[in-house]
Write a structure and sequence with these properties.
Number of strands: 2
Keywords: Cytoplasm, Metal-binding, Nucleus, Zinc, Zinc-finger
Strand content: 5-15%
Structural class: mainly alpha
Strand order of the largest sheet: 1-2
Distance between the termini: 69 Å
Radius of gyration: 23 Å
InterPro entries: MBS1/2-like (IPR045230), ZNF706/At2g23090_sf (IPR026939), Znf_C2H2_type (IPR013087)
Order of helices and strands: HHEEH
Organism: Stylosanthes scabra
Protein name: C2H2-type domain-containing protein
Subcellular location: Cytoplasm; Nucleus
Helix content: 40-55%
Length: 67
Amino acid sequence: MTRGKQKIEAQKRNADKNQKAKGSQLEARAVGLKVVCPICKAQLANQNQLVDHYGSKHPKEKPPESS
């Protein structure tokens, strides 16, 4: 029965090691979102995404210049 006990202990260790981190990723997501659309206040990661956003959501407007 020694092997049975080792197997159970190994399963517990692997379950603890592979367990996903609990909690929200909102803080990590907020750090990555640096550009805000001045029209609809959508948060975007970079200037290229802002240009794409303007093309799809605000086609009549011109995207602001990168600063």
